[in-house]
Fold this protein.
Amino acid sequence: MNLLSKLWHDEAGVLLSAEAAIVGTVAVVGISTGLTVVGKSVNEELKDVGLAIRSLDQSYNIPARRGCAGGMTAGSAFQQEPVKKSLAELCEVARKSEQAEQAAKEWARKSDEQRVRKTPQSERMKHQIEQQKKRRESAPPRKKARQI
């Protein structure tokens, strides 16, 4: 208990709140940037692994077997499509996926810009002004006041 009391009253390593805020901000920015880079790197490596696995020729041929007593085992075969063709298809799928991702980012950016331009308060003000104009147009004309 004495040790806790000493630590509680010790001010030798005091960290000011401004320093803590700056250090925390730098840490959060660094971590978020680092995680973004790591995510992109992992995606690229997984794409490379997929292309490498697809480059393997998985064709096989097992011939039929005939035994001496008249028994027979059927054979089996699989012919893979040419590797160059399948790699071209896989690269095309990856390219389309990247284009779709870019289009989604662009759409999100544009919608964010529109949201910033059209704040709810400005929309309410426009609506109120339009309602006032409609009331003025539909109201009967005012009579001029008599001058004395």
About this structure: Residues 82-138 form one domain. The radius of gyration is 37 Å.
